[in-house]
Amino acid sequence: MSETIRVAVLGRDGRMGSEAVRAVTDAADMELVAALGRGDDLRELVMSGAQVVVDLTVPAATRENVRFAVSHGIHAVVGTTGWDDAALAQLRSQLADSPGTGVLIAPNFAVGAVLAMKFSELAAAFFDSVEIVELHHPRKLDAPSGTAARTAALVAAAREKAGVGASPDATESDPLGARGADVAGVHVHSVRLQGLVAHQETLLGGTGEQLSIRHDSFDRASFMTGVLLGVRSVAGHPGLTHGLDGYMDLGL
């Protein structure tokens, strides 16, 4: 019988964090040893004997949470946004001093969303135009979403590698920003609407055709498959992994 994984959840009072507490509690191969909220002492992670910490907090807290975990040899599975290139570089440097510790930074834990990102990346080189629309509940703190930003980066890199130019766009005047955010050269549009959870569509256009790649999460339970996959896999992947697809055998 395999050893039970001792797990701590940060952000227990949030929508994602409370869902993760339930998922870990219900998992036969895991033991929830700590569930921390805002203002709780991170030293509880050490005292609880946690092997893996799941960070589902807020951008202002996540970097320090992960820094603390890594400094104590605790693996981290992170679904909080706010990890720019500089922060990732600092994390890689810290992980170099803790070679047995693994960290997963996942813009999205829904398996369907991860596949949609990968499909968008694969398709991007074959179409003249690409734009991204992401739709979320109005309580979301960041825009564009981490998933949309990651998708844009993957799409842009794939197009650059294939030698595909920028999407054609004759817009000369956009004083109100109607064309959306420019993320790595890809236009991203953010919608915040009551009743939504998490939704994203990549729109790709070519002469005489259009391809739409869409994913919808109607319940936060959809993210827990990926969270549990991360918890089960992170110890076997020392260093930094960016994106849940790093733990998925996609055969690509």
From TrEMBL:
Pfam families: DapB_C, DapB_N. Its EC number is 1.17.1.8. NCBIfam families: dapB (TIGR00036). The keyword NAD applies. The active site is at H136, K140. Catalyzes the conversion of 4-hydroxy-tetrahydrodipicolinate (HTPA) to tetrahydrodipicolinate. Keywords: Amino-acid biosynthesis, Cytoplasm, Diaminopimelate biosynthesis, Lysine biosynthesis, NAD, NADP, Oxidoreductase. NAD(+) binds at G11, R12, D13, G14, R15, M16, G79, T80, T81, A106, P107, N108, F109. InterPro entries: DapB_C, DapB_N, DapB_N_CS, DHDPR_bac, NAD(P)-bd_dom_sf. It catalyses: (S)-2,3,4,5-tetrahydrodipicolinate + NADP(+) + H2O = (2S,4S)-4-hydroxy-2,3,4,5-tetrahydrodipicolinate + NADPH + H(+); (S)-2,3,4,5-tetrahydrodipicolinate + NAD(+) + H2O = (2S,4S)-4-hydroxy-2,3,4,5-tetrahydrodipicolinate + NADH + H(+). GO terms for cellular component: cytosol. It is found in: Cytoplasm. The keyword Cytoplasm applies. Belongs to the DapB family. Residues 5-109 form the Dihydrodipicolinate reductase N-terminal domain. This is 4-hydroxy-tetrahydrodipicolinate reductase. GO terms for molecular function: 4-hydroxy-tetrahydrodipicolinate reductase; NAD binding; NADP binding; oxidoreductase activity, acting on CH or CH2 groups, NAD or NADP as acceptor. It comes from the Bacteria. SUPFAM superfamilies: Glyceraldehyde-3-phosphate dehydrogenase-like, C-terminal domain, NAD(P)-binding Rossmann-fold domains. The gene is dapB.
